[in-house]
């Protein structure tokens, strides 16, 4: 999906470097029997937007395992 989304889908300024599952998260896609790797269910984001989106929609997500 990063080939499709060359620009960040949120700020539309930075280069898209990370693939984000949207509008459904990976767990939901799998639970619905859908392919989470299908580009239809994702979007490309820049690093800063991806980080803020992840923090907002998945509290306790990736940063839960941080050492601090
Ligand atoms: Zn961005």
SSE topology:
Layout: E1 18-21, H1 26-31, E2 42-45, H2 47-57
Antiparallel strand pairs: 1-2
The structure holds zinc ion.
Organism: Nocardiopsis codii
Protein name: Holin
Structure, explained:
This is Holin. It comes from Nocardiopsis codii. With 68 residues, the protein is α+β, with helices and mostly antiparallel strands. It is built from two helices and two strands; from the N terminus they run βαβα. Strands 1-2 form a two-stranded antiparallel sheet. The longest helix has 11 residues, at 47-57. The mean pLDDT is 83. The structure holds zinc ion (ZN).
Number of strands: 2
| Residue-averaged pLDDT | 83
Structural class: alpha+beta
Number of DSSP helices? 2
Through-space gap between termini = 33 Å
Assembly form of the protein: single chain
Note the overall shape.
Answer: flat
Q: Please outline the major beta sheet.
A: 2 strands, antiparallel
Q: What small molecules are bound in this structure?
A: zinc ion
Portion of residues in beta strands equals: 5-15%
Radius of gyration: 13 Å
Low-confidence blocks of residues: none
What's the helical proportion of residues? Answer: 25-40%
Strand order of the largest sheet: 1-2
SSE string, helix = H, strand = E? EHEH
Organism: Nocardiopsis codii
Protein name: Holin
Short summary of the structure?
This protein has 68 residues and is of the alpha+beta class. The protein has two helices and two strands; from the N terminus they run βαβα.
């Amino acid at each position: 999906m990063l080939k499709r989304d060359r620009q960040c889908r949120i700020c539309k300024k930075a280069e898209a470097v990370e693939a984000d599952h949207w509008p459904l998260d990976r767990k939901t896609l799998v639970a619905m029997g859908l392919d989470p790797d299908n580009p239809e269910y994702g979007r490309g984001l820049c690093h800063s937007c991806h980080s803020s989106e992840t923090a907002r929609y998945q509290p306790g997500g990736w940063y839960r395992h941080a050492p601090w």
